Structure formats: C-alpha cells, structure tokens
Amino acid sequence: MRQRVARTTVSLAALAALSITLAGTPASAEQRSTTKSPTAVGHGGAVATVDADATRVGLDVLRKGGNAVDAAVAAAATLGVTEPFSSGIGGGGFFVYYDARTHQVQTIDGRETAPAAMNANSFDGLTFNDAVTSGLSVGVPGSPATWQEALDRWGTLSLAQALTGGRQVAGRGFVVDSTFRQQVADNADRFNDFTSTRDLYLPGGSPPAVGTIFKNPALADTYQQLGERGVNWLYDGALAREIVNTVQHPPLAPDANRTPRSGLMTTSDLAAYTAPLRQPTHVVYRGLDVYGMAPPSSGGSTVGEALNILDNVNLSAMTRTQALHYYLEASALAYADRGAYLGDPSAMTVSLNQLLSQGFADERFCNIDPAHAMTKPVPAGQPDGSYDTDCNGTADTTVRTDREGKSTTHLTVVDRWGNTVAYTLTIESTGGNAMVVPGRGFLLNNELTDFNFPNAAGQPNAPGPGKRPRSSMSPTIVLDHGSPLLALGSPGGSTIITTVLQTLINRLDLGMTLPQAIAEPRATQRNTASVQAETTFDPAQRAALEALGHTFTVTPPPGEIGAATGIEFLADGRLLAAAEPVRRGGGSAGVVSP
Ligand code: GLU
C-alpha cells in the first residue's frame, strides 16, 4: 500500500498551545537572551537547536546573508560552548545537506576514527565503564574537519567567521541552566579526577550554580586560534600534539579515584583524518524521498528499513494501538539487521542496497502478526537479493543490549533559498571521556566505546585500525518531488533511530503537526525483550499493547528518550521550526522573519 502524504498547514493556535517560554535568570544584554520557544513559524530561514544561544547565533548568520551551511557550523560551534557535554571540537558527527540549486542530498561523515594501533582486542580486560573514562576510547575528532569541509564545499563563510559567534559566547559567558548544572553534577566524580576538567567545570569544588554566568576563555582562545591557523592546527600542529598528550597521559588529579587506561592515538592518526562525503541512504515512504546517513552510521539504514517495512501497511487508517504495534515490530526487525550487519563501511558483510531494498523489507514484513507481538529478540533476516515470503530467518547471534545515551545534540537549519541541513553531533557519553585538553577548554570524546567489545573479532563493528565505530545518529531530510518537506534528528544513543522513526510516523501518518510529533511520548523497541517507554507514555496504549504481547519497562530517570529538533516547509510557504517543549529543559526554535 503506497499512499501519499498531504502537506498540511498548521494552525497557529495549535502551535501556541504547545509553545512555552522558559524564563531564566536575567543576564546582561550581551550575555544572552534566556527566553526560548520550542516552535517558530515564519520566513527567510529557520534554526532549531537545543539551546537559545546556538539558535540565536545561527539566525544571526542567516540574517547577515549566510546560508544554511554557514549557520549550521556557527550554531554547532556555539553548542560546543553551551552544550559542551554533548558536542564540541573534541567529537564528531554526521552532516546531511540538501542543496536547493542542485536538488541533491549530500552527506559528510565526520565520525571519530580509531587509531592505527587499535585492534579487535584493544579493549580486552576493560569493563565498559573503564573504557568510558579512558584515553583508549578517544577517537580522532571529526567535527573540526566536518565544519571545514562543509564550509569549503557549500558555505560562504571562512571557518574563522563561522566560529565567531561561539567564540563570543565562550568569552562573554552564558547563563547556566539546570540541564548544564545537572550534567556537571552527574559527572562530578569523573570530572573531579582530571585537573583540567575540575578547574573548568567544578570551580570551587561544585558544579556551577543555575543562573550564574559561565565563561570559557580557554575555549574562546582555542576558537580564535583555530580560525586563524586553520584546522591543520588541530590535525597536524601544536593542538594535535596536545590532544595526543592528553590521550596518552591523562591529566590525572593527585587525589583521583581511578587510574584511567591511556590511549593509542598518535599525531599520525590525527594527520591522517578525513571527513569524507558519503552517498546518503535513500528510501521512498508514502511517495516521499527519505534521505539519511549511511554507514558508519546505522541510522539511515535502520530508519530506512523500518520505513520500508511499514510502507506495506496504511498506519493512518489503523487504531493508534495497531499503528504503534506495527511501529514497534518494524523497529525490532530493523534492529536485528542492524546488529548483524552494520558497522564501518569497510567491514560490512552485506550490501546497503540489499538492506534497503523493498524486497528485503517486504520479506521482513511477513514476520509481523497484527494480533500478536513477536518474541524478542527476533533473528536477523537475509538481505541476499533473493526474497520470498516464507520468513526463514537465521538466528542473529550478535544481539546485545544497546545503551541509551543521553548525550549528543541535533540541529536543523534552513535558509531563505531552501538549502537544508540536518546535523547530529556528539562526544558520545554526556561529558565524553571526562578529559578537558589542558588549557584548551574542550572535552575529548569516548566514541570508540560504540565499537562492540569484548570478543567482537570478526564482527562488522569490532574495533580495528582506522575504523569508525557504528553510530545510531540519524540526521534525516525528507523531500517531496525533489523539494524539502521536513528535516529532523535527535540525540539518544541507540534510541535515536526509534525517536526519528516515531517522529516521522507521527507526522507523516498519524496526523500530528511537527511540534506535536516531537512532543509525543516515546516508546522504543530495539529488539530487546521489552519495549522501553517514557514515563509519560499513555497507560491505555501500554495496556492495549500488552494485550498484544508486548512487555514494557519505563526508561530510567529522568524518564526521557531523545531531544529532537526539526524544520518543516509548510504548504503556505512558511517554515515551521520545532524543538522539544519539555525534554532536556526544552529546545529553541527560531525563524529569520516571524
Ligand atoms: N555515540 C552515539 C552514536 O553515535 C550517540 C551517543 C548518544 O546519543 O548518547 O550513536
């Protein structure tokens, strides 16, 4: 069944009902505006991020004539200051770009990369927690190269210009909100173990108080020098040596509680880093073209496979329970295939084309019983080019429980020409590996914990030299007849995929506006015994799904899954920017001309 999705107009009253204003502590005019709204409608370009400063900086770039790529890099650099525990120049990400002139979607793979000395056994003997706070889990950062690549290819600003807004926020300071404080508090034990991190984020021994002004002059200086000297300063210059020194000799405090394993990264690893263009993933859903991020992210293929499975049924004609049942079952099937087949593109054992073929999805669809939930975990399918409906799967022996990260951040930008960016970036754990590069004001990632370990030799996602760990990041752009309809993404570790999938279904099938689709309580089924649902998930739906055989657990405190942002092109020509109304303290959406 392939029905089309009608573009809708959005009632302003409905938006107003969802829109809240978060009043913060008054700050001096130059420090920042602390009011933020999760929805905005208007013309001339739009920005949606989790943070008021980042959205303001992005909108400033658009107002001054910059394009969506310029604004996305400027907003990302600002997030590196105000959301430093989720993103920054010590991390990586995936940049998906629609070019309004060529009507093409292109992507940059800015994933962190393992050192040449890493192998499948490098994490042996380490618990997962030991790996989290270690030099060993630091991948070569990809964000600075991504920014330079995006600006060179599609932008109009220099890197120095794009860093200006973030540099100013770092230098002048910004108002600490409860999310920032909580993220420091949650990491206080780790942060306290490293002199550089405690000095920056635990001034006087405690997390910065809500409402106070937080400045990061070292990061302002780092941005200044990065702009002046260029990214090679970080990849092949003095800053590269400082990063390697931090990885190999963690700046441990004398009273530290842990002895972190040092890392394998060398200056040659940094010098070898590239942020390559990758073909986006592409599926057709309800007649729309859905583009996402290819491996090393599993985001585009897993969202895409689930959509292909769901294109067999008309969710809009079903009861909500039936639609949710199909959503959960399609997610589980797609996750089984993700676990079995996805990893660094050089290590993939099946073709992405087969994983994303409609024939494979149709074969997978036949596993779903409308009246009974499948027993989880379900086995992986066989994307071998020969498809039938007898549903003979092969047991997936690689099923593992994915962690639900709360870190990472997603931003969405559209400019006046219709150029569109969906960009998800991260340092992996909230707080990364907890090590600030001394004197430089930014945290290093621990992205290499996204590899499977221990005992993963031979698997696509085993650690290996120069490999990129499998990601779940799912920056997504949806086109309607070659023009953008929607762009979105979310943080949330392996729940990113289901958050993006559920938000797409909410918007495209279940009659919700984009803000409603983002606000809707979430449930995630990643081929695990139970569905994990937010505390706000409708108990009546839960009971009805339990009657079909699904079991539920509630997502751990704070009970939230993801923190999405997106932008929709409305039928009347306006842009609708949307961020979370509540999760993570609410995000910030803005338009150039309301
Ligand atoms: N490292 C994760 C990934 O790339 C994201 C982490 C998170 O969102 O918490 O999929």
Describe this structure in words.
The chain has 594 residues and is α+β, with helices and mostly antiparallel strands. It has one domain (12-24, 54-277, 403-593): Glutamine Phosphoribosylpyrophosphate, subunit 1, domain 1. The protein is built from 20 helices and 18 strands. The strands form three sheets. Strands 1, 2, 3, 6, 7, 8, 9, 10, 11, 12, 16, 17 and 18 form a 13-stranded antiparallel sheet that branches. It has a three-stranded mixed sheet with strand order 13-14-15. A two-stranded antiparallel ribbon has the order 4-5. The longest helix is centred in the middle third of the chain and has 22 residues, at 320-341. 59% of the residues are buried. Residues 12-27 and 393-400 have low confidence and may be disordered. Bound molecules: glutamic acid (GLU). Glutamic acid (GLU) is lined by residues 405-408, 426, 428, 447, 450, 471-473, 491-493, 496.
Draw up the topology in text.
Layout: H1 12-18, E1 39-49, H2 52-63, H3 68-82, E2 92-99, E3 104-110, H4 128-132, H5 143-154, H6 159-172, E4 174-175, H7 178-186, H8 188-191, H9 195-201, E5 213-214, H10 217-229, H11 232-236, H12 238-248, H13 267-271, E6 277-278, E7 281-285, E8 288-292, H14 299-310, H15 320-341, H16 352-355, H17 358-365, E9 409-415, E10 420-426, E11 476-480, E12 483-489, H18 496-508, H19 514-519, E13 523-524, E14 531-533, H20 539-547, E15 552-554, E16 565-569, E17 575-579, E18 588-593
Parallel strand pairs: 14-15
Antiparallel strand pairs: 1-9, 1-17, 1-18, 2-3, 2-10, 3-6, 4-5, 7-8, 8-11, 9-10, 11-12, 12-16, 13-14, 16-17
Helix pairs in contact: 2-3, 2-6, 3-6, 6-10, 14-15, 14-17, 14-18
The structure holds glutamic acid.
